[in-house]
Amino acid sequence: MSYPKQVYFGDGGEVSAHFLPADTAPDVGESGDGMRIRYLATNDMTRGEFGLYRVMMKEKSGGPKTHFHRTISESFFILNGTVRLFNGEKWVDGREGDFLHVPQGGLHAFRNDSDTLAEMLLLFTPGAPREEFFEKMSELSNATEEERAEFFDRHDQYFVD
User: What is the pTM of this model?
Assistant: First the structure.
């Protein structure tokens, strides 16, 4: 294994860092599922390398049904509280400091069944337009089945029963 292909060709570096204070408001407010999402590193910001999001889940808030992605991996790092994680075989209780990585094609799901707030970091690699996915999810309640299927296909989200 080697380092990736060079993408910066300057000689002296550049000022391009992005700082996000901890008290920054969520980018996606609470929807019907009780989640708020703060964009930490977007697909555009990382030039498609990854997307990193802080997910804040209210107590007893649901989450997505079991699904997989064909083009992106998804990783979960629990910051606080308890997040129920489906690892493809069984549900496990993820607690502060626990980590789950799901490669492309891996079945997974998550939810907060507890009586307290839970927070986690969500990492997608390589980067993908997940911001649009998060922002438009609330609009799907009025969509036709065909529109929903097209939305999920466009966002590499494949549900299983």
Answer: 0.91
